[in-house]
């Protein structure tokens, strides 16, 4: 490929037509000139040629660009325009979060004027919206790309892989970076783009630098430079005025509500983005704001309240991106998903609670908790930056300046250093990486957590005495895209003749929660749970809820009456279908034990015996 780049709007060079004369790009992608003008206004546009040049001449390109500069949506399109999706090759773009994958994919498909699932598609766990031989650009989560490696360890279908939001340092991102570095040694022609908002570009570049001097593989890419290239793209940011709390806040949900109301009363037009920790907090804040609107109509009329978190149904997620109606003010109440992965137009005010939900694992007690913990300074800066996208904005931090300067940690701890590593170890083993301790990690996991993971997998019968995957159980467990304990439970259900029931339980366990929760309805929802409660415990309770849902003909009224989340139950049905296909593939016969709960309990115990304890008087 020559270093000539095709610029949108000019005549297409011949190089971009394939042998049969079919043009790689889609003619209608440029038909709407307004969308084209919008694309050219993004900060990343003036770096288009530089980015394509670096990708062509370097194995790895590290792009540091502030959120909102257009890197997630534009760079993949530049790659298509330059012919990287030519001749049946795929361009893969990973995101750490499912919601971001869906949002970016639909945005890019819209800009290119194609149907989502055709040339541009996406894959997340339990959902594949791509077409073999048609899809050229595929958005996917880091975890899904790791699963693809099980069938194709060198990712031979891909010509370029872009790892976006690399600074979030999820477990999957870290494993993926380590594996991509390995793949590149075997496939020097694979190009990597590591994109991120705030990243230690230097440490990432050191990580990808080729250490040992060795004979260069002879390939036509002899011009290829092995040193990673670093490019910085400035964002479009206006000045953001930061306001701190005068004294520490007692109840941050309450503080968020009063801050939003005071912005609405005193500040000029512009949407508000609120950062809270999770679904419960978000529902509570929206509930309180709604009450305020009803009780105090005049003061708070004109507020459009929208939640945003990963468990939200797709249609409701879409509302966040729709333009604000005239004379109204949109208030998006979000988890830290809006911190980096998504750009919301029209945000002028940010309210930062200073907290997020983070995973913390204690390898000694083997307990993993989702804890509401203070964010890092890097996250606080990201959050504030969301306010200066369209015009000068304001950020209201619900903590003191003294705390920000002196006590807040500078950076977050990579997830791999605070998580249970069982799933991570089994993935590496399934990919044939036996020397896990010698694996090249961007950040080393703790030895205690690693030993604990190996112990659990050994006791589940997934690893043998030499710490290799056992056959067939180890390989079967690796095939199921769920926690290994749940996978083992599914495999054991074959022997106890209760696979239909266990697959239902596994589907429910893969969803955050099937119950509706929130402030003020605790008593009613507890009473509703009692209607389904089983002496054998939650797993059998889930079966009762699922049965009730099917008997009601999957009715949303039934769900509402029983405080069951209708969207979650629809997702359970979808996941259950997928799990049935996987069970069939790994040789599990689907069979129901009717009402023999003893069999179900045996299967659950086969997977979760490590969580057993004995009651001491």
Would you give an account of this structure?
This protein is of the alpha/beta class and 617 residues long. The chain has three domains: 14-233, Rossmann fold, CATH 3.40.50; 240-416, P-loop containing nucleotide triphosphate hydrolases (Rossmann fold, 3-Layer(aba) Sandwich); 480-611, no CATH class. It is 41% helix and 15% strand. It contains 24 helices and 16 strands. The protein has helices spanning 33-41, 48-57, 71-81, 98-112, 142-151, 171-186, 201-208, 252-266, 279-295, 297-300, 314-319, 337-340, 377-385, 401-406, 422-430, 447-459, 473-479, 484-496, 499-509, 522-532, 538-551, 556-561, 566-585, 597-608; strands at 60-65, 90-95, 120-124, 127-129, 137-141, 158-163, 191-196, 229-233, 240-244, 271-275, 303-308, 329-334, 347-352, 355-362, 367-374, 393-397. The chain has an eight-stranded mixed β-sheet, with helices on both faces. Strands 9-16-13-10-12-11 form a six-stranded parallel β-sheet, sandwiched between helices. Strands 14-15 form a two-stranded antiparallel sheet. Helix 5 crosses helix 6 (171-186), helix 17 (473-479) packs across helix 18 (484-496) and helix 19 crosses helix 21 (538-551). The radius of gyration is 25 Å and the shape is globular. The termini are far apart. Its EC number is 3.6.4.13. This is RNA helicase. Residues 248-432 form the Helicase C-terminal domain. It is an enzyme of class 3 (hydrolase). GO terms for molecular function: ATP binding; hydrolase activity; RNA binding; RNA helicase activity.
